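Re-run with default settings, no changes from the original entry. Doing this only to confirm the output is reproducible before filing.
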Amino acid sequence: MTADALADALRRGPFHVALRTAIEHRGLSLARLRAHLSRIEVSVAESTLSYWQRGLRHPDMPHALTAVRGLETVLGLPTDSLVVLIGPRQRGNRARKPSASFAELVVAGPTTRELLAQLGVDPERCNAGLELQMTHERVTIAADRTQGRIDTRLVSIAREPGIDRYVAVYHGEPGCDIERVRVTAGDGCRLGRVRRREICVAFELMFDRRLAEGDTVVLSYAVDDSSGLECPGYFRIFREPSGPFLLQLELPPADLPARCVQEVRTNDLRPPSVSQDLYCDRGYVVSAYYSGVDRGIAGIALEWPQNPANPAVHPVP
């Protein structure tokens, strides 16, 4: 990589091209670059550097300013040569739509706000420091049509440094006994405080450490709802656009639903904006895959036959 090519990249941008060119010109691996930054007391995750140089993420100002100035120092670049390339995207970040409130999405929104307040969480900024990349949920439906265990796995990236927890909310069906709902922490976290009221339970999933910006966190947890109510389906709330969502329901082989429908709704009172019939596989599992989701609720609705002894069986391909 020639000095002329580097000068041209710094002059023209964009940021990720200039950064990648400077790294190549300096002849450093990302691991060595991170080590050099650490020596001048600048902490940046190697994954963040990778995202920045590939243009998959952009430094989020103002807290990324120290890191970018550190890069200029380590890479031997003129002062502000990288900083000035952040400006246009910074303005775009500020224009990003705010997350939807719980009240906009679910009837139980006010109760959810109260529970989050008990945990010291601003409902409007709940998990705002984490960018959800992927969600996988598997729900077990018991032989008596009740919802059993929900196993959830999330992959997120830290938008800012210092994040040490994920706050989750579970909404049971009307008439459920929320005291019977049990939460278990799985990979990448431990259970923190739990608060319950009416049909809602809010709980903390604590990380082992505080995250640096750009860190990837993978966590899992399970919710067991033994309320004994017939399961009408399962939906997950998305307060902002997210990456892929895979939802799988394990159905009772002896009593299959008459219909399974993949749905998307803007809130839990509106009719679905997306509705598509689903079919269970030979293992009696029905799956709904979303390559991406917008703000709203997404999931699978179930319609049960009136006569459990003679259910309308889904065709199995």
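The chain has eight helices and 13 strands. The radius of gyration is 24 Å.
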